[in-house]
Design brief:
Number of strands: 16
Helix content: 25-40%
Strand order of the largest sheet: 4-3-2-1-5-6
Number of helices: 11
CATH topology of the largest domain: Creatine Amidinohydrolase
Shape: elongated
Strand content: 15-25%
Order of helices and strands: HEHHEEHEHEHEHHHEEEEHHEEEEEE
CATH superfamily of the largest domain: Creatinase/methionine aminopeptidase superfamily
């Protein structure tokens, strides 16, 4: 973390490189990610990792195509102990990579097609030929007798690997561990993504008046994020009035009314690095019930942040939050995701996952370089309002650093009257 300078804010420098400041070094970022994945492979029983998870593909090959194609279980990458990564992609995308992704050898950008989540049936033979090609590469490298680690996979492809004699094991756990510690470049990209949301919340405060609809807020936020350089707006929750409790995790066409409490979650990515960023506002005025709920949610948040430092277990973070039965739920499964923490990176939900559901029995020790979001939720005693707060935190040797800077210490009333 010394890259940022002692006591200085983490930079959010903008969208382009310049000659007069040190900003994100993408070559260094690519080297870091591939080295982390290669180290995970070297420490495993596997001779190779076969990756279908599109975050793992980006992490190892440094390539990306849009979510509409990237999530169809057709792109895949092979990382071996003796070379790689080799990427199979949509044919025209593979040709593009040959031109614009010089860190990949030209022969390691190959056209591939497996079936578009079953739309092309396995009987067409695409999976059979793909496995045969992969097996041949492993044989040539002297790795065919070692297990192949796979992160996520369609059953038909898994069965074909087994039919052709390959031993398949799970490598998703290893890849998530590889992605756990963020480099200075990753943290800067995460901070830039959060800075963009800071600005969107200012826009929301200015337009959050009676008569506007939740979906109009969502439309405005999408537009502003793409204008500012977002590469994917994954989701925006907009929840107001009687929809606040219970929390529906979506948005609707509900009209905002005077005195509503409203909370929003903005999930987008900048150069692949994501935000998860809740803020709660009141519209025009606030009630004592709303203010009380907000104060409790803020106190739970502050207690969690205060506990963040290297060496602390995630069980110690979860322990500062109320039990499910203390805020109206029958058990921790029913309340999961409300008092909650989750890693942020190329994926929205990376390690560590922090909650009473899992952390009390399987705690993870916090390390310098972890980045995660902390979320709290408190239903109001009026029976329908609720407060939702989220802060993104970097673990440094000196304690927590906060990326999410839009004001949230007290309940903000938008356009008071």
């Amino acid at each position: 973390m010394s890259f940022f300078g002692a006591g200085r804010p983490i930079p959010a420098p903008g969208h382009m490189g310049v000659d007069y400041e040190t900003r994100v070094d993408f070559d260094r970022l690519r080297r870091y990610r591939l080295e982390r994945a290669q180290k995970a492979l070297a420490g495993s029983e596997c001779g190779a990792f076969l990756l279908f998870d599109f975050y793992n593909i980006r992490y190892t090959t440094q390539t990306w195509i849009g979510g509409a194609l990237g999530d169809k279980m057709t792109r895949y990458a092979l990382l071996t102990r003796s070379g790689g990564p080799t990427l199979w992609d949509f044919g025209s995308a593979a040709r593009h990579h040959k031109l614009y992704s010089p860190w990949l050898a030209e022969d390691d950008c190959r056209a591939g097609m497996l079936g578009m989540r079953g739309a092309i049936a396995p009987s067409a033979g695409l999976m059979e030929s793909a496995v045969r090609e992969i097996k041949g590469m492993l044989e040539d490298a002297g790795l065919a007798a070692q297990p192949v680690g796979v992160d996520i996979v369609e059953p038909a492809f898994l069965f074909e690997m087994q039919r052709q004699g390959l031993t398949v094991v799970d490598c998703q756990q290893l890849m998530l561990d590889a992605r756990l510690i963020k480099s200075a470049d990753e943290i800067m990209l995460l901070n830039q993504a959060a800075a963009m949301v800071d600005g969107v919340y200012q826009d929301i405060v200015e337009v959050l008046k009676p008569g506007i609809r939740e979906n109009e807020i969502v439309a405005m936020a999408n537009k502003r994020l793409y204008e500012m350089g977002s590469d994917q707006v994954e989701a925006i929750n907009a929840v107001s009035g009687e929809r606040c409790n219970p929390h529906p995790h979506n948005f609707s066409d509900r009209i905002i009314r005077p005195g509503d409490q409203a909370f929003f979650d903005i999930i987008h990515s900048f150069n692949g690095y994501r935000t998860c960023y809740y803020r709660t506002l009141s519209v025009g005025r606030s009630t004592a019930s709303q203010r009380d709920a907000y104060a409790k949610a803020r106190a739970w948040m502050d207690a969690a942040i205060d506990a963040v430092r290297p060496g602390v277990g995630t069980d110690e973070i979860a322990a500062v939050w109320p039990k499910a039965t203390e805020f109206g739920f029958e058990n921790e499964m029913a309340a999961f995701g409300l008092q909650f923490g989750h890693g942020l990176g190329l994926g929205l939900h990376e390690r560590p996952i922090i909650s009473r559901l899992n952390s009390m029995t399987a705690p993870v020790e916090l390390q310098v370089g972890m980045v995660f979001a902390l979320e709290t939720y408190c239903p109001a005693d009026d029976g329908f309002s609720a407060a939702r707060i989220e802060e993104e935190v970097v673990v440094t040797a000196d304690g927590p650093r906060i990326l999410t800077l839009f004001p949230a210490q007290d309940l903000v009333v938008a356009n008071p009257y």
